[in-house]
Amino acid sequence: MLNEINALPDGFLEVDHKNILELLKTPTLIHLQGENPQPLFISTLLHGNEDTGFIALQSFLKKYESLKLPRAISIFIGNVEAAGKDVRHLEGQPDYNRIWPGTEHEDCEEARMMQSVVEIMQAKRPFASIDLHNNTGRNPHYGCVNRLSPQYLQLARLFSHTVVYFTSPKGVQSEAFAKICPAVTLECGKVGELDGVEHASRFIDTTMQLEHLPDHKPSDIDLFHTVARVTISDEIEFGFDGRGDITLDGSIELYNFREVEEGTAFASLNNGKATGLQAWDDDGNDVSDKYFEIVDKKIVLKKPMMPSMFTRNTEVIRQDCLCYLMERVVTD
Ligand SMILES: [Zn+2]
To answer: Which one of 22, 71, 73, 211 is most buried, counting C-beta atoms within 10 A?
Structure first.
């Protein structure tokens, strides 16, 4: 399934992500040489419609078209089939960012491919790993880490003051690479925003020129820990227009990365069918009662929290989740 090559295919720097399937045919790992032989690993298009990282990579590589790269780089272009359809993943396909080593997903061809990407890269002792994503709601640009070690936080801090630490969901790229090298997942805003492309491209360039990552904790970061993932039960109809069982608050995206007070309503109940939102902790335990209660047919927050990744995209809410709830991490 995996294609491994040592040069950029003709047309790579210009191709639109929707046409990448014709160019690459399958998920592809590309190794390019550079001044420093220890490679930076970058993955993108693990979600086929999230093209900001791919465009940023093209822009970075164009800059070095006639120059030697400061260090070697290995690029993994993930779900090329989903990219062709401009969707996160095709029906019947697993989510390409839930099937890396450590996954809870059942064994499948795609999971074995991710395993082999990790093994190939492990042998090359990567300098760092970056996985580039977009989200659908209104969020600041931020980096996510799966470890709180200094170099991991430094790498994330190079991208943004805002850093999120998470240990669930399982099977994500950055968690698998965290065992090998400093690793981050970068959320570069919404698809189609030019500043996300420029920011990610600058970040790649900066990281490629680094000799090493400082071995002390960055002092100026806003660090948050994801404590719960919020979903809506499959049999519940929901929306923003007052129909169905639950009506979500139309301004939920404005709560992202804001300290939201207890008693804030995220949704209202339209009938007796829905009993509320579901919240899950890192171990998959139902912790809904810890964070939500029903007051006057409204689903309200039981304690002050900071949400992230709230989106108004009902398809994404169904496929992924409504939001995450976070708490601030105080480091010494
Ligand atoms: Zn993504």
So the answer is: 73
